[in-house]
């Protein structure tokens, strides 16, 4: 093989030195993602790197070539973007700060995944690791290259769901492989259609053991690993009792998603109001034992599930009857299943947290995009789990963002049709030929499906709350990164922020963000997001349009629609802003009439009690200084707490990132006359203030799932 003419997209020899490969169409002149190694880099004297297959927060995966065995491989590199960068030599890794200990600990966890896969080397239907080593001041491991597509992409290519017998054909080998994984006292903890690949030979392979852990039953605490819809309720606690039953739930959710086309509600949400429907209730006929087994695997409580994957297999095949008890929690008085006052949105306490996505329009965009240019390529991808590199803080060619998006030509010529939404209190024009994808959804697509437009209300998501448009302005990169993450069904290889700024001359204060995203086939879409002031006192309207790059007509249509936007009153939302002029802070919470009682104790202390009276939250706030920070405050609270009779502090202070704030947390138990109560104390800093949030509950479950603590830790901010 002539390495001078090698294609780094398929590792076949090209007939000449043309940058475009005639075999796979890969263009060698395309820019590699940020922080990636140069193509053609040689690792361990044996592995040549090619194009990037995927980028995550802690690693980069490359297509590689084993020069000894002369086969393609996948090479995973430890590259925590928050701690390190690429050295000027383009190969070695250099730390960006003082996080040496965090970097080394992360590298050890990275290599642990390789060691786990090495122990599973001869297990069928599990991706095998061939080598792992340290080099360039970082670590690598080499896996077999999976030539195929993810189960998620395959199901999407089949219209969103597949027959149950086909799903079982794909998943049963993985389930059998998991029985061997569990026999080694291992739990995968991240099973989902993203992490199951179907090879070109029709084999099923389980990927990504980065969340797996040994000896789960012997650990006092494990890290919180979540994939909403697939994670059981015990994964929402760092001290949840995890084991084979944890993987049983995730596999049940995967099978449910494949045959029904719907993702099960988050397990933590089901604790309070279980809305999970049987497949037969969704119009999907299944053999009775299959449906019963799926529903038992998806039981909220671990003790109601199959305890082993083998038992789940027996239940599906009908060897063991699988009884299932479906729990339904009563909806509180004055509320409807549709939401407060019958407005859109399922009433559930968990929806008050940021984990329940609040931006309906953005979620809809994922489905709508399947109609457009990316529809034909959404199911193509050699290795799953890839993410785009972080967006740059500068515009094209390093241009600083001091001007807003430039208005395209032809805006005045666009023909608009009237559209109004009473719930959001808005009117606007929709380009002629665009149709609403579902009545009342606020999501529209052009007649050929290549352009989309969605409208919704934005208050908290993307790891930052919104009180004013300045919050959007300060968090542009987070918003774009979050939005790209919603497009996981499409294999995005890179994205770029093109421009951003306030819209001059708009009748309402508007902030615009223009960005692009390119999928693996080379097709690039542009997105224009408009954040528009509202009359709620917090949050904003969010309009986002998408169109193929270079489609000036579609760009003008999106721009014209946004310019026509008008608001006639406060937007309908179940979120509310808490603010009291006596207190220096504010937060956003999920509204439910009569559920929370607020009591301002003094100028720095707020006490909240839920309607049942079994959960209480206190918020305190003080200015930070060199002598006073979150560690000092939490240590001081601990000194007082541990001296109280019956009060015990649990070992291990843990960290929790929420809403852009790095919280540190202590947990306590209080026992009196044989009764136990639970308390967690969160301490965090932002914008010159230190916050201490104390949550107490009569049950550990109530403490973990409490909506008040989820809301406040995610959205609390000083009043500016």
Automatic annotation (TrEMBL):
InterPro entries: Kinase-like_dom_sf (IPR011009), Prot_kinase_dom (IPR000719), Protein_kinase_ATP_BS (IPR017441). The keyword Transport does not apply. GO terms for molecular function: ATP binding; protein serine/threonine kinase activity. The keyword Membrane applies. It comes from the Bacteria. ATP binds at residue 76. Pfam families: Pkinase. The chain crosses the membrane at residues 359-383. Keywords: ATP-binding, Kinase, Membrane, Nucleotide-binding, Transferase, Transmembrane, Transmembrane helix. Residues 47-329 form the Protein kinase domain. This is Kinase domain protein. It comes from Subdoligranulum variabile DSM 15176.
